[in-house]
Sequence to fold (445 residues):
Amino acid sequence: MKSYIPHFLMLKEKSFNQTLEKLSTGPGIIPFAGGTDLMVLFEAGKLAEGTFLDISHLKELAGIYEHKDFLEIRALTTYSEIKNHPIVRREFPLLYEAAKVVGARAIQNRATIGGNIANASPAADGPPALLCYDAIIEIAAAKKNRKVPYCDFHKNYKVMDLKMGELIKAVWLRRSKSFTGVKKEFYHKVGTRKAQAISKVCFAAKVQLSQGQVQEIRLAYGSMAPYPVRAKSTERILQGEKLSSNLIQLAITQLQKDLSPIDDIRSTAKYRMQVACNLLKQFLEGCL
Amino acid sequence: METNQVNISLNVNGKKIQITTYGMKRLLDVLREDIGLTGTKEGCGEGECGACSIFMDGQLVNSCLIPVFQAEGKKIETIENLEGKTELHKIQKSFLQHGGAQCGICTPGMILATKELLAKKSGKLTAKEIEEGLGGNLCRCTGYLKIFESVKQAEGK
Fold:
């Protein structure tokens, strides 16, 4: 059944500070940015009735800022803006690839990176890329701002390190120092259709090798756990080791312990695990 | 009776329009029901099919995913704004000429997505760029080939 519109209230405060004050007044006030997730729930009658606070006009939450060591992407930045930013394309190719496959153009023009994180879908396209870049999430609140590593931000299905009154303000990505060895990055989304489809499995990976030895590695998956995850124990098996066919086989076996896919409307746990292993194999074999 | 209705001023196809409605009402429904612009279609209602595509501040968006509250003060352009006083737009002509429209439900969205594609392109469009640009617009009639042909021909004009 469709939602009953009179039971939904939409508000807007003039300033960023007033918005934070308003958010701190009650747990039932939900920030509303691009709306590409919330409106789908709304139309399906699955959005909880209540009060929504429009944040889409706040300048403090907009824009991409270049710092010497970091790229700061404010929460309202859309995936179109991310896709078209030269530094993202040059220095954060995984995020660029992710931005290209978030919905299609009309969605990319509205969907924000902050919303992609806060919606906390296990199938979100951006988060695996953010995990590979050790993103830091800046959280604003009326009283105090704070920063948390993104890899610790999701706690369980739709459970985040985000308290009442807090709002995601920005994503900080460390700009990598020059590395003389081999650097490989890999992003692949598997869905029923290339455009628009929500992923069955999404994989982002980054490795730095010197003379075949793994210096640093990040492996991150979407749709393979209750939230976007890093395959940390698999990373540990590979860390510091020289890549070989045997090691790749060990990593694939280990990977199954890091992931916990389920059967759902889009795929089965069995298929997802097989594809996740295949993607890891494809990535690592490409580094041999 | 308690009411959450608000006054909203919209700029639709260059005209200022005042309406009183619920802030969460979908822009799609406001365009069709309150303003009577039925060129914008509803397909899936979940941002998947692109039939409800419009321009908001010059950007292609799905009007089914926008609460009218967020459209306040924004420049809204629908398919009705495309044609001139005496002539169809070149994209419309091309769709007409090359069989790019059949049942017509996807057509307004396809045409606006084409408009965005042509406006933002750099250099001649490749087949892949056309596919990607229209990736958010579903058509169940044409098999897409005639739509791609319509886009190519419109580009040449």
In short: Chain A has a mean pLDDT of 96. The interface with chain B takes residues 3, 5-6, 8-12, 32, 34-36, 39-40, 42-44, 52, 54, 56, 80, 103-107, 109-110, 194-196 of chain A (CB under 8 Å). Residues 269-285 of chain A form the longest helix (17 residues). The CA atoms of residues 193 and 199 of chain A lie 9 Å apart.
